[in-house]
């Protein structure tokens, strides 16, 4: 029942507004990797395919490969969640490549801090107790906490689109339409999730 309790908790919302967390960044060579990230990954911001392997720097970093080497050594993917700022970072080699606004648990039912792993992925999880769909569900705590898109009723009505950027759930981490699926598709089972309070 605890699992379903968390599901229900994730549906309880407070008022608020969406934060803009990413400004447009300069991408001089139009390879999908900003000049700032090219600097951090050591690639050339004037050459779209720095290592000449046929894959652009942006493609390689997003997929977790080095843009400066043709060997097959992977750069680790991870997810970092900042509860204080209600932001989620998709990280490659511990460098944030995307930042999304989230909605985590209320103070009385907080999202747990610590290191976790993605345990299970379900494209569209059904909450039997609440009678609602949780799109792009990724379970991480072993106690029913997960990441998912803003929930939906069977009729198609969607909740909480204007509540991202504020703690509002009973422990889950909610993402907006677009980011939730992008994160789901990008994340293998077993990926490290680090949740910090600051
Ligand atoms: Ca670039
Ligand atoms: Ca390349």
Task: Describe what you observe in this structure.
- The protein is an alpha+beta fold and 198 residues long.
- It has one domain: L,D-transpeptidase catalytic domain-like, CATH 2.40.440.10.
- It contains 4 helices and 9 strands, in the order αααββββββββαβ.
- It has helices at 2-9, 35-41, 57-63, 179-186; strands at residues 77-82, 87-92, 95-103, 114-117, 120-127, 132-139, 146-149, 173-175, 192-196.
- It has a 9-stranded mixed β-sheet.
- The longest helix has 8 residues, at 2-9.
- The two termini are 30 Å apart.
- Bound molecules: calcium ion (2 copies).
- Residues 49-51, 53, 55, 57, 60, 67 line the site of one calcium ion (CA).
Number of helices: 4
Question: In terms of per-residue confidence, which ranges show pLDDT below 50 for 5 or more consecutive residues?
Answer: 4-22
Please identify the structural class as seen in this structure: alpha+beta
Architecture (CATH level 2) name: Beta Barrel
End-to-end Cα distance: 30 Å
CATH first level:
Mainly Beta
Task: List how many beta strands DSSP finds.
Answer: 9
CATH overall fold name: L,D-transpeptidase catalytic domain-like
What is the percent of helical residues? Answer: 10-25%
As a whole number of angstroms, the C-alpha radius of gyration is: 18 Å
* Main sheet strand line-up: 4-9-1-2-3-8-7-6-5
The average pLDDT is 87
CATH superfamily: L,D-transpeptidase catalytic domain-like
Bound molecules: calcium ion
Number of domains: 1
N-to-C SSE string, H for helix and E for strand: HHHEEEEEEEEHE
């Amino acid at each position: 029942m605890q699992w379903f309790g968390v599901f229900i908790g994730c549906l309880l919302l407070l008022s608020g507004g969406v934060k803009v967390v990413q400004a447009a960044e300069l991408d001089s060579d139009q390879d999908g990797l900003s000049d700032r990230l090219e600097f951090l990954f050591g690639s050339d911001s004037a050459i779209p395919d720095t290592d000449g392997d046929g894959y652009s720097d942006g493609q390689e970093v997003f997929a977790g490969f080095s843009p400066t080497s043709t060997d097959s050594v992977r750069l680790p993917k991870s997810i970092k969640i900042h509860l204080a700022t209600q932001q989620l970072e998709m990280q490659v080699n511990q460098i944030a490549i995307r930042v999304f606004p989230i909605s985590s648990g209320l103070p009385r039912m907080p999202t747990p801090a610590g290191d976790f792993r993605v345990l299970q992925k379900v494209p569209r999880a059904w909450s039997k107790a609440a009678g609602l769909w949780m799109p792009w569900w990724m379970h991480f705590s072993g106690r029913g906490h997960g990441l998912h898109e803003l929930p939906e009723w069977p009729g198609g009505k969607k909740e909480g689109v204007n509540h991202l950027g504020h703690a509002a759930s009973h422990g889950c981490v909610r993402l907006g339409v677009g980011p939730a699926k992008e994160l789901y598709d990008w994340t293998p089972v077993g990926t490290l999730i680090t949740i910090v309070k600051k």
